[in-house]
Every structure is written in C-alpha cells, then in structure tokens.
Amino acid sequence: MTKELISYPKRKLWMAAIKPPMYSVAIVPIWVGSAVAFWETKIFNEAVFYTFLVSAIFILAWENLSNDVFDSETGIDQNKHHSLVNLTDNKLLVFWLGNLFLFLGLLGIIIISYWQQDITVIGIILLCCFLGYLYQGPPFRLGYRGMGEILCFFAFGPLGVDAAYYSQTQTISIKSFTASIIVGIATSLILFCSHFHQVEDDSIAGKRSPIVRMGTQTSAKVLKWFTGSIYATTLGFVAWGFFPVWTLLSWISLPFGFQLCRHVGENHDQPEKVSNSKFIAVAVHFWSCLLFGLGFFLPVG
Fold first, then answer.
1. C-alpha to C-alpha distance for 221 and 272, rounded to whole angstroms
2. Residue 38 has what pLDDT?
3. Which of 5, 12, 194, 254 is the most buried (most CB within 10 A)?
4. Is residue 224 within 8 Å of residue 263, measured between CB atoms?
5. How many other C-beta atoms lie within 10 A of the C-beta of residue 72?
6. CB within 8 A of 85, min separation 6: which ones?
7. pTM of the shown model
8. 228 in Cβ contact with 274 (< 8 Å)
9. Is 254 exposed, middle or buried (0-12, 13-18, 19+ CB in 10 A)?
C-alpha cells in the first residue's frame, strides 16, 4: 500500500478517487429525458432541469462515496490506492460525507416535487437510490454476484430517464422509455469495462463480476456486441419512426466505440494497460448520449 501511494502523485490519486469524468453518468439521463420531453411536448422547464441536474450529481457522489466505504469492509479495495477511504484513512468521514450528498440530492428532488405538487419523481429517485444501495450495500451486495450491470441499466436508464421526462411533463411516455434503453446500455458499458483490470482482486474477494465469470477474452468479445448495440438500437428505433432522424448524430461517437473495442481486445488480460478502458467507455457514453439527446432538440424539417 505504501509503495503504491509513493509511486503516484497525491494530486493524481485524489483526482482518480473523485472521478470527475464519471459524473457524466448523472448528467446524461436528465439530459436525454428532458430532450425527449421537449421533442414531444415543446416543454422545457429550465429551473426543474438544472435543479434535477445538480441533485443527480449529488446523489451519484453519495453512491461513489458509499461504495468506497462498503468495499473497504470486504477488503476488495486493499490494493486500490485511489480509494477515498484509503486516502483519508477515515471511513466514518467518507460515510457521513456521502450521506450529506444524498441529503442534498434528495432535497433538490423534494423541491421539484413541491413545485409540481406531485411525489412521483421523488418516488422514482428513491427507487434509483435503493438500486444503488443494493449494488454494494450490506447485506445485499448484488454487485458481488455479477448483477451490477443490470442494476446500473435500470437505475440510469428507464428509471433515471423517465424521472427526468416526468419532471418536465408530469406524464409518462413510451418514447421516453425506448430512449432510456440506449442510455441504460451506454451506462452499463462503463461498469462492465471497469472490471477488466481488477479480475484478480475481485476473485480473491469473492466478487463474481461478469468479467470474472466469463474470463477476459470472452468478455472482450462480448464488449463488441455490447458497444455495437448502442448504435444498432438507435438506428432501429429511427427506422421504426420512434426517434427523429437527427438522433443518428450519436453515430459521430462511433470512433470512440471502435477505440474501446480495439483497446480492450488487445489488452484484456493486461491490467495495467486495460485499466483506462472505463474512461474510453465514458467517452462513448457521454458523446453518444449527448448527441442522441441533441437530436430531439433539432427541427425535423
């Protein structure tokens, strides 16, 4: 542990612990859900949008901090030099800081519900938080059973996107739900890629991630289909008439998809080299979903 900390500059360790790029995961569902709402209803409430955006970032901060706390209890992070618990050597501080972020995030959602005199959004977000707890929190720890990607898909896809749509319109929409499928796949892709470099530590700690179960070589092949499904699903829904043709702008991010699949395919069994694959997956997620959402704002003709 000491050698690891010495070999990395403290600033880089803190940046890796805070994980700024990962917060696009909180932003994207709000962006896409609000974009679909605008396309269907021409409604866009800026106060609700920005309040939801900040709240989502706070809630994701809670999830990241609490996951560090829960992982420290299983020993899976003993070699993770950028764990906040390891950096601060104060698990209680990280735990309560996470709870503070959760309180602030839920406060924002409560404000939206108060504006609308409707508790539906807070109900959906509380369900998202529960799924987040199921992922790592005791006694469930479903992430250790290889169910993390499924929980991630529902929390950041159907639930997150549809909550954002409802916050704008106070209605539900089948088109919002179909859009949420793409966001859910793209978000789960990040979690899937984050396992490649920690197969050994996961196996020792008893965490049966999809990569541990399938092996890195098979997982690298699955990744190609996983990544390709984002673009194929978008094309399919456009062809079906569910999405405007401008949502195909998401295909501009395809070079990141090729880069991700090639990089993991070549380095899947080399932890030091493949460890950055999750950040390439973040680029796939962010740019594909940003451009996908933009397509709902652009005029059809």
1. 20
2. 97
3. 194
4. no
5. 19
6. 68, 69, 71, 72, 77, 91, 94
7. 0.90
8. no
9. middle
